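[[Encoded backbone]]
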Amino acid sequence: MRIGFNRPALAGNELEYIREALAKAHTAGDGSFTRRCNVFLENLLGAPKALLTHSCTAALEMAAILFDLGPGDEVIMPSFTFVSTANAVVLRGAVPVFVDIRPDTLNIDEGLIENAITPRTKAIFVVHYAGVGCEMNGIMAIADRHGLLVAEDAAQGLMSRYRGRPLGGIGHLAAISFHETKNIISGEGGALIVNDARFAARAEIIREKGTNRGSFFRGEVDKYTWVDIGSSYLPSDMIAAFLLAQFEHSERLLAERRELWGRYHAGFAELEGRELCRRPIVPAGCDHNAHLYYLVLPLAETRDSLIAALRADGIQAPFHYVPLHSSPAGLRYGRTSGSLKNTENLARRLVRLPLWYGMTAEPDRVLDRVHALLER
């Protein structure tokens, strides 16, 4: 039996809601389902405004525009992240400045941020890896001291909390993903979360191709015209219809995912005790969403051998990011601040395990095979 790394799942009324969107003859952006999803996110995160987008990448690009990033500006971020975090900055002509990650959570090391600040630094983009929150109190304090803006790349963080506060609801702006590999999905999809109300009006304009279309339909202006830069960042209302059904079952989905994560975590405790692997570390004060389960192996060669052996057994267990600072585009467009030894070391030794809704006996098979292979 093949066990894939991910398997998208229906949660409830997805197909019914898509049919309803079609029946309303409004399948383009900003229909009734989109508005209901926006309200759900605003209530969940306590945000003044949430705007669905066609991807988390789009939301990050909107954040870069809203922060007025331009040539010569610098943005501090981890190198251990997906390319969209850096691309959003580079597309505005700014420079991503890569700093190292913490060895425990694999999140940006907040203790290294101030050393990376220069007169050109304008913002900090943080990434909540595996749904475990960055040390946001310290990061926001640094930003306040230096007059910097903070965007949360919370692609993996929806329904996680940091010291009681929802991830995606702390920075000035945040980006969420609903890609099919995430906990709550719409195939492709994302959202921009506006936590600082001063960005709300312009965010709506940028999302609508730089027009005041939203104000026009609310009767606030008498003409619908081009007023700012922007692009088409709206998702179809059919995508929003699918997403709303997932939102309605989000607590059940979260509980199921945590149960699966817990089975892995308990099952690998003995191997960790024998120093054959290291399990994920969740600091006190972080309430995670069980987005993914990973192991850190003692050596890169051990990781590579394990991935190959699991593949031969029909189990898909991939590594994760190739650090951006070492990529061709990262070398061309970015720069590093200090040593990135943790990033380079941990990226070579990390393997992710299958985790998706509907798993029954699959985690036990993965546990058995990993145990057998590492013990051998």
